[in-house]
Design brief:
Distance between the termini of chain A: 18 Å
CATH architecture of chain B: 3-Layer(aba) Sandwich
Number of domains of chain A: 2
Radius of gyration of chain B: 16 Å
CATH topology of the largest domain in chain A: Rossmann fold
Oligomer: heterodimer
Largest sheet of chain B: 4 strands, parallel
Number of helices of chain A: 18
Strand content of chain A: 5-15%
Strand order of the largest sheet of chain B: 1-10-5-2
Largest interface: A-B, 60 and 44 residues
CATH architecture of the largest domain in chain A: 3-Layer(aba) Sandwich
Strand content of chain B: 25-35%
CATH superfamily of the largest domain in chain A: NagB/RpiA/CoA transferase-like
Shape of chain B: globular
Number of domains of chain B: 1
Helix content of chain A: 40-55%
Structural class of chain B: alpha/beta
CATH topology of chain B: Rossmann fold
Order of helices and strands of chain B: HHEHEEEHEEHEEEE
CATH class of chain B: Alpha Beta
Number of strands of chain A: 10
Order of helices and strands of chain A: HHHHEHEHHEHHHEEEHEEHEEHHHHHH
Bound molecules: iron/sulfur cluster
Distance between the termini of chain B: 36 Å
């Protein structure tokens, strides 16, 4: 908890979160007003995800079978170590790898692992690249560098030879810098926002265009998919990415990428379990999450601590449940004020306060 | 979903559009503008393309490139435009200016139908890639300041067949 207490005095974090919330809050309201069907989609999605949660093995098998029929090499990793090993054996060493921002890859610490194997690995989302170069952890799932000022970013980017004068200049220079990496890359790696068991399609949303380049340019592409991202069919996967982007605040996203095959180029799919399948009834509710990041920005505790409050990878209110599923229960469950704001704003109607109260009891028993 | 089922759904959507074409076109134009795309409505889209090419070449440096595509489908309610093809994905992702022509047959009422039309078209090809754009590339990762052209096109122009 020491880190959390130190963070409380770091005004830059609360300032960054306040600004992001101000920017996005009205946009979420506007999205719901303009596209009222999003509420219905979220309800339908919740029902579909409950069905998947209750029959994980069936849907994992169905997904693997669809991909195998399409001739795509597919793996199921039971934990982070196994996922790293599978991907490490595909990539080996001495390669250039372009990565898109992905919470599952953070969860398995993939970038660090591939670098240790002797590969050149680049995060290609601007915020995530800044975090990589700074050697920090993302402060928010969708806006990883929200705690850094323009001045900080100018200084951080100098470490990789980028000398920008302001936000726009830095962004355009990063574009130039990464262009060369995209073109030379041997491998592209992404997570997955939603997966359709029916067609074997990977659905990805973004605004920058780095996912499009990472998934289409390299000769080989690897997608890592948390088994919670499996949905029965394409319609649900589309609805999921719509709900995710609208409740974050950017709708429609600038780009949607849907990958079923990559002929004549190669692709691999790695499904990641890492504690999801064996979650108990209470924690399974967290698996309904579409990772819009809304509960984080709206949470009064997160607003002063950012992702420092939470587990290794997942921070804020949703991070309590996710950390318990994928690694362990954090003592920091006691720092929640159980105000219920997270439940109120969650499009998937996840009872996060109830999950946190349950984790407190479990923590004591442990 | 098999191609026959898709075709049935697409035909259903086309009937809806035909009945109320004007309303759907208006809805589409509003959505596209709301997303920040430049919209040109023209009876002859190809003429518009050559005008735009000349204009863009005059105002941009020689190394920068323009890509012109024909949209596979578009959702009237959100302005999301679908395309198909792996190479098409990288070419449009690398361009400075993406100009796309949308003909009336490509208009669908919403994203779910627009995806179905694009998917149906992609089934005839081997690559299995469907992608969509709704605006130029952007980021707000540094202090929330919006910058266009983060990795993909700085400009996105839609030429809509109409008149
Ligand atoms: S718990 Fe709900 S609000 Fe929080 S990230 Fe997940 S879906 Fe979004």
């Amino acid at each position: 908890m020491k880190n959390v207490y130190q963070t409380i005095h770091t005004q830059q974090i609360s300032e960054g979160i306040r600004k992001t919330l101000e920017n996005l809050s009205s946009k979420v309201q506007e999205n719901i007003r303009r596209y009222p069907f999003l509420i219905r989609y979220a309800r339908e999605l919740r029902a579909a995800k409950i069905e998947i949660n209750n029959n994980f093995q069936y849907w994992i098998d169905a997904s693997i079978s669809t991909l195998e029929k399409a001739g795509i090499p597919v793996f199921l990793a039971k934990d982070a170590k196994m996922a790293r090993k599978i991907i490490g054996e595909i990539i080996e060493t001495g390669k250039i790898v372009v990565k898109t921002k992905s919470m599952v890859s953070e969860e398995i610490h993939l970038r660090e692992y591939l670098q240790k194997l002797g590969n050149e690995v680049w995060e290609t989302d601007l915020g995530e690249l800044i975090i990589q170069v700074a050697g920090q952890r993302p402060m928010h799932m969708v806006v990883p560098a929200l705690h850094l000022s323009e001045k900080d970013v100018i200084e951080i980017l100098k470490k990789i030879g980028i000398h920008g004068n302001n936000a726009e200049d830095c962004t355009l220079k990063v574009r130039e810098f990464l262009r060369e990496k995209f073109i030379k890359a041997n491998f592209g790696i992404s997570g997955c926002n939603a997966f359709s068991a029916e067609s074997g399609s990977i659905f990805l949303i973004e605004n920058e265009g780095n996912i499009r380049l990472s998934t289409s340019l390299p000769e080989t592409y690897i997608s890592i998919i948390g088994i919670d991202k499996i949905l029965p069919e394409d319609d649900f996967a589309l609805k999921s990415i719509m709900v995710q982007s609208a409740f974050f605040g950017t709708f429609p996203p600038s780009y949607i990428n849907i990958i079923r095959q990559r002929h004549p180029k190669k692709m691999y799919v790695v499904f990641l379990d890492n504690g999801r399948k064996k979650s108990d009834e209470k924690l399974k509710e967290q698996l309904l999450c579409v990772r819009c990041g809304r509960c984080q920005l709206e949470c009064p505790v997160f607003q002063i601590t950012g992702s420092v409050w939470g587990g290794d990878t997942y921070g804020g209110p949703m991070g309590m449940g996710w950390s318990a599923i994928t690694s362990s229960i954090s003592e920091e469950v006691y720092l929640s004020c159980i105000c219920g704001k997270c439940k109120e704003v969650c499009p998937m109607d996840i009872d996060i306060p109830n999950i946190i109260l349950y984790l407190r009891k479990k923590y004591l028993l442990c | 979903m098999n191609p026959d089922e898709l075709e049935r759904d697409i035909e259903k959507a086309r009937k809806m559009i035909r009945k109320d074409m004007k309303r759907y076109i208006n809805m589409l134009v509003e959505s596209l503008k709301n997303n920040g795309a430049d919209v040109v409505i023209s009876k002859s889209p190809l003429n518009e393309v050559s005008k735009l090419e000349t204009l863009t070449e005059d105002s941009m440096n020689e190394a920068e490139n323009i890509v012109i595509t024909i949209a596979d489908s578009v959702a009237a309610d959100t302005g999301v435009i679908f395309f198909t093809g792996l190479d098409e994905g990288s070419v449009t992702g690398l361009a400075e200016h993406h100009i796309t022509i949308v003909d009336k047959d490509a208009i669908m009422p919403d994203i779910l139908f627009a995806f179905k039309l694009a998917l149906w078209k992609s089934m005839k090809k081997e690559h299995g890639v469907v992608f969509a754009s709704s605006s130029a590339s952007k980021t707000a990762d540094i202090e929330g300041k919006v910058v266009w052209g983060a990795h993909g096109p700085r400009k996105f122009t839609v030429i809509l067949e109409g008149g």
